[in-house]
Amino acid sequence: MSFFTDLAHQYIDGEWKVGSGSWDIIDFNPYDGEKLASITVATADEVDQAYRAAERAQREWAETNPYERRGVFERALRVVTDREEEITEAIIAELGGTRLKAAFELQLTKEFLREAVHLALRPEGRILPSPEEGKENRLYRTPVGVVGIVSPFNFPLFLSIKTVAPALALGNAVVLKPHQSAPVIGGSLIAKIFEEAGLPAGLLNVVITDIAEIGDALIEHPVPSVICFTGSDRVGRHVATVCASHFKRSILELGGNSALIVLDDADLDYAVDAAVFSRFVHQGQVCMAANRILVDRSVEAEFTEKFVAKVASLKVGDPADPATHIGPLINASQAEAVSSVVEQTIAAGARALLHGAVKGNLVAPSVLTELPPGSPVLGQEIFGPVALLVPFDGEDEAVRIADDTPYGLSGAVHTGDVERGVRVAKRVRAGMFHVNDGTVHDEPIVPFGGEKSSGVGRLNGESTVDAFTTHKWISVQHGRSNFPF
Question: Is 1 a residue whose pLDDT tops 80?
């Protein structure tokens, strides 16, 4: 596809370049195996070139009038809107995303670009009082400088934009490394959008590469002062360790094992709809997905019957077909890993109400229940279409089960009493919790992030300003200070 081959390059200092590594990343369509593009990887030297270009360009960009900066994001929004159908087809081809998923990702992308327009004007200074006579304390918000960003494969357009655009809007420069399974949608497409929007050269650089080629060069490099990583908690732990050893700030959005709790007074039909979407959107390849559906034992039978019937009705197949609900997982290793989890859990004593067949990268939904106490699968993230139904007796047990995981990203509770739901939500240790809704949400001005192994730091709105700017204290003595010697 010319769309992919045209963008199968590195983007450094405003130029499209072929990487100088010794091997290629092959970009495949996960549904039919079609080769979309071949991209020669960037080396550590090219990572250095990208960071040095960003460092040079950022100084002038930080001094640019923020009203002028925001025009770039207004134009970027128009580029995305004008090319929406082309981008939709590309999301389907590279990610195996359904048309519904593509529309969902594009909607979020546009919302966050709109917010970036406003973020350019958001930083405000303060004047603080002083105990010293005649002193004025000024507190300035200044850009951090250069930000290194590593984005994932599941929602790569959106999750790249939601960090790249705010970082740029606040006066920084960026070096972006997309996931090797989404090099175009999560990387070079972003560069193309901002190039067409008129972003000055050097401010956004995209390096398509792999740790096997560059090691820790992206996070150890002396130029970036902030590293923003979205991915697994295993890799996130390493990123945090390297950043700390180099005195860099790290913002980590990691895995999840969300619980959707159905209390005894819930609207069961509505709860089923929320649970099915929360578990199976984009084949379950979502950090906020509801891995575990916790159901009060008094309504377990009725909920389970309705839930299984709705899951069984989901169409598995070609993501280009508008009727498809479940497309392929991103690659064969992910499909094998999910299938293995299901088989091992059943072998350990769980009962399969649905046991999804595997055909290539297509993994049909599975619904498992009667899991043995302490089953390892209850504590882990499953990045695929597998739902675990777990009964409970009363709110206290629901909260205990919901918290019995290393993760704490998102969750939801369904109840006929909103304030009861809020009380339960407050008790669960998670960064985000939703009453009478699904578990998968992200909004431009609401702090987004997790607790425990689900990450460090927050993004969106004021949290983004905190993430990509720093405070600078400048005092002015209008009189004369008295020194002791």
Answer: no
